[in-house]
Amino acid sequence: MRVFIGIEFPEQFKGSVESLKSEIESQLIKGRFSRIENLHLTLVFIGEITVDQVEPLGHMLDQVLATQKCFEMSIDELGTFSKGEQSIVWLGINKGKEHLFHLSQLLKKELSSRHYTYDIKPLKPHLTLVRQAKLVQDYVFPVVSFLQRWKVEKIHLYLSHQVNGILTYEPLHTTHLK
């Protein structure tokens, strides 16, 4: 089973992203939008584990995050990561970035001490909107400022799997922050 540790976005934020989708669609030659239901921010991508490792990973999350406090997060940027002729269109995190870096490092340190493997790439706090995107030439991204901020209150261990041919992220364990 394929897993990662991440943060889910609140419903009101997902509504704002849905309205931004039509703006991006008008400038998109091709690409695959992330499903609104799957919007999340990955803190640590772990990858393949066995069913027997789910419970110990959940306990690890509870222990590592026991003293971590809730924090506010907001979005301030729309941009791309280029991969040849295709790109990933993303939303960048503004408020809360320092907390995300701290949590990611804390979790990676603990995963290492328990001999779990994980993706070692440094965290780039973002939300993937479109994969394999090809935008019209000279497209200028609109200024994005989701005025709402939201409180991050929980961290999830997610299962990433296909359900009836559709990529789905399902929380396996949830840890509440203080």
Helix and strand layout, with pairings?
Elements: E1 2-8, H1 11-25, E2 28-33, E3 40-48, H2 54-64, E4 71-73, E5 75-83, E6 86-93, H3 97-113, E7 126-135, E8 150-152, E9 154-163, E10 166-176
Word description of this protein:
By secondary structure, the chain is an alpha+beta fold. The chain has a single domain (2-176), classed as Cyclic Phosphodiesterase, Chain: A, CATH 3.90.1140. Helices cover 24% and strands 43% of the residues. It has helices at residues 11-25, 54-64, 97-113, and strands spanning 2-8, 28-33, 40-48, 71-73, 75-83, 86-93, 126-135, 150-152, 154-163, 166-176. The protein has a four-stranded antiparallel β-sheet with strand order 3-1-9-10. A four-stranded antiparallel β-sheet has the order 2-7-6-5, with helices on one face. Strand 5 (75-83) and strand 6 form a beta hairpin.
Q: How do the SSEs run, as a string of H and E?
A: EHEEHEEEHEEEE
- Structural class based on helices, strands and sheet pairing: alpha+beta
Number of domains: 1
Q: If you compute it from the alpha carbons, what radius of gyration comes out, rounded to the nearest whole angstrom? A: 17 Å
CATH class: Alpha Beta
Give, in spatial order, the strands making up the sheet with the most strands: 3-1-9-10
CATH superfamily: Cyclic phosphodiesterase
- Largest sheet at a glance? 4 strands, antiparallel
The helix fraction, in percent, is 10-25%
Mean pLDDT across the residues is 92
Q: Give the end-to-end Cα distance, rounded to a whole number of Å.
A: 29 Å
Instruction: Tell me the CATH topology.
Output: Cyclic Phosphodiesterase, Chain: A
Low-confidence stretches: none
How many DSSP E strands?
Answer: 10
Shape: globular
Counted by DSSP, the helix tally is 3
Q: Which CATH-level-2 architecture?
A: Alpha-Beta Complex
Percentage of β-strand residues: 35-45%
